[in-house]
Amino acid sequence: MPSEFALIDQYFKRPTSHTLLGVGDDGALIAPTPGQELVVSTDLLVEGTHFLADTDAEALGWKCLAVNVSDLAAMGAQPRWALLAAVLPAREAESPACKAPAPTHEWIEAFARGFFACAQDYGIDLIGGDTTRGPRAFCVTILGEAPAGQALRRSGAKAGDSIWVSGRPGRAALGLAHLQGRTTLTEPQLTDCLAALHRPQPRVALGLALRGLATAAIDVSDGLLADLGHILEQSALAARLQIPNLPAAGLERDCLLSGGDDYELLFTAPAASDERVAELAGKLELPLTRIGEIVAGAPGELVLNDDDGSDITPARRGYDHFAPQPVPRDSNG
């Protein structure tokens, strides 16, 4: 294992494109664009809780940044800067939650390759962070920009709004279930679900396009129903759902509704804008599915109906970081 500063210099010190002073000093210098507000978010990924011990290093590097980019997408913000704090074991005994050995130069190089691939795709400068030894964990803080007063929030939903979700939620949770032996997937579904799990694609272009159109938004990290609940609670409203092509009761339905780890965008918009949202789906070449509507009711309450109108609302909405968990989760909220 190289020294702290050698590790940073070798793997994480890169040229920046829109930063006055990046990695290498006591602090970074950034200059926000005039007329823009800063949007800041942070996420912590811990081995054995948020990712499996044998997760591919390059995929993990990508995902560590991607889950943060997704938070900015949900705010309708343009990602700009990130800071990375990494805890790495110097020997196997320092990683008691797993059986993984201390990371090698090759492992760190692959992690950095995945991290910077994501950074390049979304125009992000790494401007600082920290490293230390201990059980493996990563914390990313991300900063972005949104025009003053235009950032999307969870609290803006209105009664009568349509509820939409991007992409095809549930695939990442199915991929994890396969890795944990709870189901057996075959090709091509296996490759598709593992890609969704390990290399999520933050919906930044969608988030930017939703400014001025969506009334509220959130990214799906802990489960479709759980994250919709956050919009409902903060908007003091309820929801009535009827999801097209809902799988039959079982694991696949559970993954779609409460599995999480999708990093798709869940958003509300006036029903009068349904056609505009449909047009946006075509423009972005991204599925956008209307799954219900916002209604007056107890804050956070939601009802899921099947095609016949029967109530099939599940008891479990999603992942809770502080509730007992039967299996490790390859995710972050």
Highlighted features:
alpha+beta, 10 strands, 333 residues, 9 helices, six-stranded mixed beta sheet, four-stranded mixed beta sheet, globular
What would you note in describing this structure?
The structure is a single chain. By secondary structure, the chain is α+β, with helices and mostly antiparallel strands. It contains nine helices and ten strands. A six-stranded mixed beta sheet has the order 6-8-5-9-7-10, sandwiched between helices. Strand 2, helix 3 (105-121) and strand 3 (125-133) form a beta-alpha-beta unit. Helix 2 (57-74) runs parallel beside helix 3 (105-121), helix 4 (171-179) crosses helix 5 and helix 4 packs across helix 8. The longest helix has 18 residues, at 57-74. The model is unreliable at 325-329 (pLDDT under 50).
Task: Estimate percent helicity.
Answer: 25-40%
Largest pleated sheet: 6 strands, mixed
How many strand units?
10
**Cross-sheet strand order for the largest sheet:** 6-8-5-9-7-10
How are the elements arranged and paired?
Layout: H1 4-12, E1 36-46, H2 57-74, E2 78-88, H3 105-121, E3 125-133, E4 137-147, E5 162-166, H4 171-179, H5 189-198, H6 204-210, E6 216-219, H7 224-235, E7 238-241, H8 251-259, E8 265-269, H9 274-284, E9 288-295, E10 302-304
Parallel strand pairs: 2-3, 7-10
Antiparallel strand pairs: 1-4, 2-4, 5-8, 5-9, 6-8, 7-9
Helix pairs in contact: 2-3, 2-6, 4-5, 4-8
